[in-house]
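Hi W., the nickel (II) ion complex you wanted:
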Amino acid sequence: MALVRFGVSIENELLKKFDNFIKDKQYTNRSEAFRDLIRQELVQKQWQSGAKVVGAITLIYDHHKRELVNKLMDIQHDFGELIISSQHVHLDHHHCLEIIAVKGVSQKVQKLADSLKAVKGVKHGALSMSTTGAGV
Ligand code: NI
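Structure:
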């Protein structure tokens, strides 16, 4: 794809903050950081408009909690068409880490993540959404 150059007017203070941000995030130049910020905003907009997304749901839970594992399993079967794969790691005597790879319409993926996070005994749950970049 052809690159287009354009000028940006920006306050000195804001540019300093941007440069610090770039340094923290280990970007090698301003252009790449700027492109990523634009893509991030556009991806965010796609999510809100019912776009297809891919992502990962991460759960930490205590498997000793009554009925918890069964509930998590039931929910995953209910949303079976969204789930590509899942990985289970036994962290210690009590805790499990589960990483579920998902693909589908953003609202449904969000609903699946919310349902899993809401189960009693789930100590932490996070959804990381992304797209393949198509159209962004
Ligand atoms: Ni486990």
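The chain has a mean pLDDT of 91.

W.
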